[in-house]
Amino acid sequence: MSTISTPAAPGSFRYQLASFWSDFSASRGALVGLIFIVFILLVALFAPWVAPHDPAMQDRAALLVPPVWHAEGSWNYILGTDAVGRDILSRLIFGARYSLSISAMVVVISMGVGIFLGLLAGYFRGWIETVITRVMDVVLAFPSLLLALGLVAILSPGLTSAMIAIALVQLPYFVRLTRAAVIGEKNREYVIASRLSGAGHLRLMFNTLLPNCMAPLIVQATLSFSTAILDIAALGFLGMGVQPPTPEWGAMLANAREFMGSAYWAVTFPGLIILLTVLMINLMGDGLRDALDPKMKRS
Amino acid sequence: MALLDIEGLSVRFKTSSGLFAAVEGVDINVDRGEVWSIVGESGSGKSVSMLATMGLLPWTAQVTADKMAFDGQDLQQLSSRQRRRIVGGEMSMIFQEPMSSLNPCFTVGTQIDEMIKQHLGGSRKERHERALDLLAQVGIPDPARRIKAYPHQMSGGMSQRVMIAMAISCNPRLLIADEPTTALDVTIQAQILELLLRLQEDTGMALILITHDMGVVAETAKHVVVQYAGRQVEKQDVKSLFANPRHPYTEALLSALPERAGDQDRLPTIPGVVPGQHDRPSGCLFNPRCRYATEHCREVEPVPAPDDPARTLCHYPLEDGVSPSPAAAGVARDNPQSSPHREVRP
Amino acid sequence: MFKFFLIKLAQLVPTFIGVTIVAFAFIRLLPGDPILLMAGERGISAERYAQLESQMGFDRSLVVQYLDFLKGLLHGDLGNSLVTHAPVMDEFMSRFPATLELSLFALAFAVIIGLPAGVLAAVKRGKTLDHTIMGVSLTGYSMPIFWWGLLLIMLFSSTLGWTPVSGRISYMYFIEPVTGFMTIDSLIAGDWGAFLSALHYLILPSIVLGTIPLAVIARQTRSSMLEVLGEDYVRTARAKGLSNFRVIMVHTLRNALISVVTVIGLQVGLLLAGAILTETIFSWPGIGKWMIDAISRRDYPSVQGGLVLIAFIVMIVNLLVDLAYGVINPRIRH
Ligand SMILES: Nc1ncnc2c1ncn2[C@@H]1O[C@H](COP(=O)(O)OP(=O)(O)O)[C@@H](O)[C@H]1O
Ligand code: SF4
Ligand SMILES: [Mg+2]
């Protein structure tokens, strides 16, 4: 039995945590990813203090100013300004708030609902399972972005509908993972022992089964988190997500697009920060997977 | 000149916790047409030493040897191309898990044909005929049909027969069989052993049979190497090994044989397990399980006496079943029944 | 094998019904009166309202409406576009080849580069080359492709002037659509220059659309290669004295491909999602751009039809992938 699927005695939980950390930190990429994520979270949290300017402030005297390393650039606007004279760096910093918080909400929603449905399906089997898996199959039949677009069209473009749409698109992965894990764990001794000692359905599902199925779910959560950032930005770029003038990264790109020929910086930096954030989360996800999933450890 | 001449073979694996010496100081010299056996419990380094000979270890393995020659050619000096001509052609190997040793994507015929094509060549038709012959030779009924079968359509015994057919397809001069019957049903085991011995006799090839079962050794081999925890602990011909085991480990393996256990209710097994990477004791590697172990054994690693033909890796090699170890007297008193009955001979 | 196919086909039926229900519900879920919504800001006359209402069948019960919808669907009738008034089916079909052509080129790009890269990384595991390939793959996997497209346009089109910015072929050529594939049609027309132009226009969009699939394929190839390299039968192949090349390309890759093919098949959904963005950036006249336009113009019948048809395509491709899986995996074939 692996250390992860053994029910954690209070003493050994510490040990598990330590062994997890040593596996996780053995990967340099994972560590770099984690540090970057923490950094960008802090920046987002303290945006008003970190950002040099108000993200909405328009400096009419400084339209499309290039970044500081150009001859015409200035330290005032380190990464340059956009077409209406707003500081790109400040907008990126405030944009982190949107991207990260919406994506976090997406993960919370789809993971919460997904775990619930997956537990139901795996625990009760029968028609409940059939219905749930069929519905998830239907969701998966649509390309994710298309379904999200369709939903946004129904709900009208905006932050909340983008969030709901992307959470729905992510749902099937959590349901499938939870269901599979529950089916795998259900007949293990510790679950049967718990049932014999009179634990109810809910208690069995949430207190006994769930903690032992967490490892793949955590890995999926990081994957969903990075996918959500990409999808939010894509919706923003298509004009179906967070609406301008909110400094959302994707929407910033969409705005800058027409100045592509003259002001590369307005296009380059928002995309770069999306790429970096997603890359770092994925790096961390790879490390997590290696540390949490004993099967994958070898490769 | 010996066909296979190995001296001082060592294999170290790179692992996350440093180098692990899985095999150290193994000598074996097989002459043409001889049957050898390497015996020891699981984890003794039997497979690793033979895989090293074949050049089949993963990249984490570092193989060193004072001498490693096949038919006079130094295996360590050969280019990989030259070595591949020997491996499979003149020296071939079959494995413990026949079911997973055949490629699931190709038919039996394709897999045998590939080997013949590599080493013998010949027209497609000739190769096909030879493959059919080989399948018949290893006792596979209806070869014309079986040759088109995929591995998953065959039983373990059938798969092992196919592996054997493949291994002898290029008339090797040495066949290494790594626990060829361990994964099979008891009824099939004897058949496969019989087949191997028959083929050995018919073709005159040399055979190295790896096993953990002294019973198998008694029935098959002429010469025996006993390995424990990666070390070769003794090497004798089978008659004297059964008559006069020199190493306490050999003695213990022999007394676990049902014939030798006599009228005891339960087979005497050796308590404990072969130490792995992380639990190797100091001194003699066998000392935690040895009933003759002394303080000296726990501190100092034994080396074979220079005048000992069996090259016994023990401070107190047994003489006619009696250990000169100071600890021996106590053992005999505590446990009078455990001294081996010595009527059974190979 | 045929039985395997039938089982897979039967499993699709409930999903297909689910998809039609979703698409059917789509228009009915729009907040407010769908007809007024579709009419947009300009409003609508009472006559036209009644006409639309009966055309869309909104005046009948939901069950009847759904059955009608299903019947139309089975006859290839998905209603008419509110913008062009042409049948949605025709609109879709006239654009689908453009998307298909782009997706196939993107997939080819992804496979041709991703597969060898994955094999190479597996063979050189732990070495610098492996780390480099995996690093680049993870970057590709994390790529916001709408930005990637803009970046490539800025570099290769605006700055270097090597590649065109948008469209399928230079305006200097007019090719009569036969198959809808610009490359094939230009060859049919015997116009070599047009063919080269069409290829030229395909380069950047294919790279952009193929980037994420490439990364996924490289990663999957590496991990399945590593898994297979540890298998007993690969050791057997080595024990046969085969060349390293043969051990890797025949015995290892052949088995690793079983899972790689599955993953390649799963890219189709990703490709179609990516096509929405890629086509928008490169003004590629395919179904992705058409869907975006339909959504922003509130052309709901088109959106609805597009949803059904695209889901349908994804399902068919997944079925084909299952079949391919059966073909290359003898354990299922027999
Ligand atoms: N690739 C490897 N990496 C590290 N250790 C290994 C590897 N292969 C075998 N070993 C170790 O070498 C020792 C001998 O193994 P093996 O030769 O398979 O034993 P036997 O065949 O006698 O049962 C064991 O402790 C085993 O764990
Ligand atoms: S050296 Fe000592 S412990 Fe080792 S086998 Fe001999 S008697 Fe036993
Ligand atoms: Mg072995």
From TrEMBL, chain A:
> Per its UniProt record, what CDD domains does this chain match?
TM_PBP2
Instruction: State the membrane topology.
Output: Multi-pass membrane protein
Tell me the Pfam families matching this sequence: BPD_transp_1, OppC_N
Give the UniProt subcellular location, in the record's own words. Answer: Cell membrane
Q: Where are the transmembrane segments?
A: 30-51, 100-124, 144-169, 213-242, 262-285
Primary location class = membrane
- Superkingdom of source: Bacteria
Give the ABC transmembrane type-1 domain ranges: 96-285
InterPro entries given in the database record? BP-dependent_transpt_permease, MetI-like, MetI-like_sf, OppC_N
Instruction: Name the keywords, alphabetized.
Output: Cell membrane, Membrane, Transmembrane, Transmembrane helix, Transport
Family, according to the entry, reads as follows: Belongs to the binding-protein-dependent transport system permease family.
UniProt protein name:
ABC transporter permease subunit
From TrEMBL, chain C:
* Annotated localization: Cell membrane
Keywords, A to Z, come to: Cell membrane, Membrane, Transmembrane, Transmembrane helix, Transport
Per UniProt, residues of the ABC transmembrane type-1 domain are 96-321
- Which CDD domains does this UniProt record tie to the protein? TM_PBP2
Q: Where are the transmembrane segments?
A: 12-30, 102-123, 144-163, 192-217, 256-277, 307-328
Recorded superkingdom: Bacteria
Query: Matching Pfam families, A to Z?
Result: BPD_transp_1 (PF00528), BPD_transp_1_N (PF19300)
Membrane topology, as annotated, equals: Multi-pass membrane protein
- Among its keywords, does the record have Transport? yes
What does the sequence similarity comment in the record state about its family? Belongs to the binding-protein-dependent transport system permease family. OppBC subfamily.
User: What's the name of the protein?
Assistant: Peptide ABC transporter permease
State the taxonomy lineage: Bacteria, Pseudomonadati, Pseudomonadota, Gammaproteobacteria, Oceanospirillales
